[in-house]
Amino acid sequence: MPSVKIAIDIRRMSEFGVGTYIRNVVRTLGRLDRENEYVLIGPPPKVQEIGALQPNFHVVPLTAPERSVQGYREFRSALKGLDCDLVHVPNLFSVPRAMPCPYIMTVHDMVEHMSRPREQSGFWRSLRWQLTRRVLEGAARILAVSNFTKSEIEKLFGISAERIEVVYNAIDERFLRGHASAADRELIAQRYQVTYPFLLYAGSISPHKNVARMIEAFSVLKTELEKDRAYPDLKLIIIGDDLSGNPDLRRTVVRSGVQNDVRFLGFVPIEVLRIFYDEAKIFVFPSLYEGFGLPPMEAMAHGTPVVTSNVSSLPEVVGRAAVLVNPENVFDIMRALHRVLTDDPLRTRMKERGYEQAAKFSWESSVRRILEVYHQIADEGRPHRGQQPAAD
Questions:
Q1: CA end-to-end span of the chain, whole Å?
Q2: Alpha-carbon distances of 65 from 10, 90, 210, 283, rounded to whole Å
Q3: Per-10-residue mean pLDDT, the chain, length 392
Q4: pTM greater than 0.85 (yes/no)
Q5: What domains, with CATH codes, occur in the chain?
């Protein structure tokens, strides 16, 4: 099989979900593939996040922001000089680009077309939709991170199912480094003053994540536990975005009367997040929309029971290992949390099922499939390599 020259856009490596995807795809390609040539396009400091690279990996530095006219031109100019067989863009983009080679695009979700456009005028919403459809139609292949995301692409944009490949996400390998030690527990006790039982949420706190209802459910749960005389010092810890941009959540906490029991910790590094996953009584993830939903799987890899939503991709991802709830029903969320907290046999079953479910997803199997797609697309376009693209 002839070698293939592949460019990968790594400019969004610092972002929460896309960054995890880029880092793990590139690291796994480095372990599996010493034959093909890879060109990583993006700022050199981001390449350092990946770690040591094999000799068949090279870096083309770009400094302009991705979402800028200069960034658009710089990326296209870099590609033109590389003579690649294909380029992998690991995220959905909306502005059509005259690529000098075929491109593969990974689509993580359609949330921008489900929520944000409602805040825009009809003209801009329609324009954004038209441009996104053009970009999707121009892709040589689309990689969807779940069957749910694939169906959303088909339904919203009319893209043929044959052009969409489902390649699942998996968790970062750093979440697989065993359980929390006494030193780990001492670290979160000293650094974060966490010495009590807690429920955990990790992720962004944008509206579709449904964090406000989770707080309300926690407030009702505290009342129920008080009746049971159980878990009097239970807290809810929320890890993710800075709260300053979401004052409504702070008001929800005060209105629900749990200001002494809910803590917002903002961003924490993975090495610390894994300790919180391991120590949590329950991981709560009542999101209204997920293209995949990595955090529940990260929690399950630590044997932590998960309560999550019965909508979008989440049932597909968690299987039978989590308790599913209606995310729009505060009392449904509360009842699930109460049951998991107080039913020890259920907790034991969930722990074992969580380990089994998380083990079904691996970056090695996903990246092997991505490699197959690379070769398929390169073979289809190989006679045209080196030719100038026709003018738009």
A1: 33
A2: 12, 16, 30, 35
A3: 90 83 94 95 82 91 78 85 93 78 94 63 80 92 97 95 97 87 96 97 92 97 95 96 80 94 93 96 97 96 97 97 98 98 97 96 97 94 48 34
A4: yes
A5: 5-170+362-381 (3.40.50.2000), 175-360 (3.40.50.2000)
